[in-house]
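Hey,
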Amino acid sequence: MDFLPTLPTLLAFSAASLLLAATPGPDMTLSISRALSQGKKPALYVVLGTSLGIVVHTMLVAFGISALITASPTAFLILKTGGAAYLLWLAVQAIRFGSKLTVGKVDEAKGTPLSNISSGFWVNLLNPKVIIFFMTFLPQFVTAGDPAVTHKLLFLGFFFILIGMPVNALVVLASDGLATWLQNNRKVLRGMDYTFAGVFSIFAVKIFMTQGR
């Protein structure tokens, strides 16, 4: 079971993943919009598609980061430092601009399960923010000298999906009233922004302090 991270690492990763899953983004906007226009079942296929997109990101990060560690631990250290800076930047952006959730019922032809899965897949796979986030987020929870780093990154990526899918599915099932409620209760979204900013600022500072020792 070398692929399992320590309990404190797993708890920290779980908290960050849960917060990220609950924060409105392109994937949540798409799934809610699809639920309002086509129904909950097509929207759940979108959620499946977004999760498949995360699978691809996980594979690329796991094997890419492992190769980077083998080639140059110093480069991995630079990546982690850059990742910490990126997390701090995300925290600042969350405070400055806040979460955006603008959805509405749009009349459109009902898509097939495959087309809905494809929509969710591509919205995550081609989103530059998701690509950069996974490249900088997952490596914060592994160390360069760990012989099981590839397996741990794979575990964390799939664990992220395990946490995110139920959250996204609940959002879809509650979409009828949730979208309107969130848009009418901006204080809730701002509270999520400040929580998001606080958690990722703590991660960033912790990484900087650890690497400065």
